[in-house]
Amino acid sequence: KWKGEGTTQNLENIVIGRCYDYIRIVNPAVGEKNCSQIWEAFKNAFINKDPCSILPKDYELFINLSLHTIPPNKSLFWENNQLLVNSFAGRGRRYMSLGDTLFGFFGDFLNWCGQADSPGLDYESCPTTMECENNAVESFWRMASITYAQLSSGVIHVLLNGSADGGAYPQPGFFADYEIPNLQKSKISQIVIWVVDDIEGPDIDSCGIHSVKTLETRLKTLGYDVTCTDNNKSVMFLLCLD
After folding, report:
1. What phi and psi, each to the nearest 5 degrees, are found at residue 41?
2. What is the pLDDT of residues 142-187, one digit of tens each?
3. Cβ pair 125, 156 in contact under 8 A
4. CB of 180 within 8 A of CB of 217?
5. pTM of the prediction?
6. In 3-state terms, the chain is what percent helix, strand and coil (to 5)?
7. Domains of the chain
8. pLDDT confidence of 130, banded at 50, 70, 90?
């Protein structure tokens, strides 16, 4: 048995339903998509395989079938604050975070894995990233993150948690390892960093110091126009409301 929780019950129904929800209600602008075909491509990325030997490229067909554009100036990257980002993005009304794209919406908050030499899903347990990095979920989000970064353009925003243990900009991390290296510099006019502390939480990290300074330096060295703001008012209002 693996240490992680097993595949989410009713996974197929959930993700096909999410796909139709997305193209009909959340973001009809993406146009017609074949949700059953997208599910098959998703499943075939990890089914019948050793659950510790799934690679990001195994999801290429799934990504290609679910791909759509991200409007310029709408990209919102993040670390350590997923629920806040979901609220703030407003399902694409304000921003379009990875979880607000069709391919991200498809897998958000779900768990899944297959079994070697079996066409079934494993509902008992799935490997954690500590047990093996090349598991079905980790590789899915790596591929999704790479794709999301490549599609982002205009002014891009990064929302970081200034109260996070170990700093607002974790290394290793999805933003550091998969998103920054895949940004298309020619398509990006500015990178806006927002560092927001939890309400009544510790102020561990801020613009210009600690890990945020490391991030600012990295982005500036890469030639980006970077600005950074502590405790952006709009985000703080949302935190207060919650």
Report:
1. -65, -40
2. 999 999 999 999 999 999 999 999 999 999 999 999 999 999 999 9
3. no
4. no
5. 0.97
6. 45, 15, 40
7. 11-240 (3.40.50.720)
8. very high
